Amino acid sequence: MTSLTKTPTPQDLPAVSDVPLTHGSLPRRAAPLTLLGSVLAGLLLFVLDWSPAWCALLAAAGYTLTVYLWSRRVEGSRKATDRVVTAIVTSAFLLALLPLVSVLITVVGKGLARFDATFFTNSMRGVVGEGGGVHHAIMGTLIITGLAALISVPVGILTAIYLVEYGRGRLARYITFFVDVMTGIPSIVAGLFAYALFELFYGPGVRMGIMGAVALSVLMIPIVVRATEEMLKLVPNELREAAFALAVPKWLTILKVVLPTALAGIATGVTLAIARVIGETAPLLIAVGITTGDNFDPFDGRMATLSVFSYYEYVSPGVPPEPSLDRAWSAAFLLIIIVMALNLVARLVSRLFAPKTRA
């Protein structure tokens, strides 16, 4: 029985010279010029009273489509697909960056209005209308956040040491599970917990700075535990085994070998945890409240914080409202500066305390 399919002979195959081994390529400035044209088209639509969001979306879509069609005609389908994926990834990055840039521009533009000496040295005691400052809120923020760190850091580090170095069996699994649960707790729940706890001792209506510190510590502890746990796991077991071989007790090995090796990562995690909670508003609204004057005693009465101060100045402006709104934006700008400074400190600490290696 003969086969219906004819086996091709060498004469039937195309010559090597007939098969293109390379494709053309777009000019080096093709993509930048296309992007420039798309941006100009988006600006033209914006001038014609189109929505900024629609202008950005149409400009991105026009750039992607133009590059794809041009590249497919000149370079082939593979290169065109690569350029489309690159354009989509870049557009997604810029889209994610837009809210951050918008927030920074808005806060900086409106927050510089009250960045003067009075704003940093005065409180709101007896101030109606213009004037006043956030000295009481700055000190309250530093005191409450410092107390929260004083509570959270030892508890978080010791918990992580137990989970990595000692934890075995059911108890360690339970602790890990509850740390995971605490990571997702809404911040307002932490404030309600602190209020309910202190209400048992002081009665209803109590407001104190230490309550805000306890609420923030509930949010800080799981972050510190997770950061410390991951850093301790990165310490090579050979270091522990070398110490054990020299008959060094386990607690001294942890203290002198494991913790110094992981110190850079632990310090970075603690700093980022502080930056995470220093701008919380909901738990402090419930547990601390607000006051117009200086109160540096966290165990007696209400205290002011930057986040709560900004909130109240914005939602309850005076007459006229402009001075209150200026103070609210300036307090928010100051809070952003503090958070950025803490992130820079975290990077500096990570570099300074990193284990020294030979070149």
UniProtKB/TrEMBL annotation:
Transmembrane stretches, start-end: 54-71, 83-108, 137-163, 175-198, 204-225, 257-278, 328-349
This protein's GO CC annotations: plasma membrane
Protein name listed in UniProt: Phosphate transport system permease protein PstA
Membrane topology label: Multi-pass membrane protein
Top-rank lineage group of the source organism: Bacteria
Domain ABC transmembrane type-1: 138-346
Subcellular localization(s) per the UniProt record: Cell membrane
One Pfam family here: BPD_transp_1
GO terms of biological process kind: phosphate ion transmembrane transport
Assigned keywords, A-Z: Cell membrane, Membrane, Phosphate transport, Transmembrane, Transmembrane helix, Transport
Organism: Streptomyces aidingensis
InterPro entries according to UniProt: MetI-like, MetI-like_sf, Phosphate_PstA, Phosphate_transprt_permease
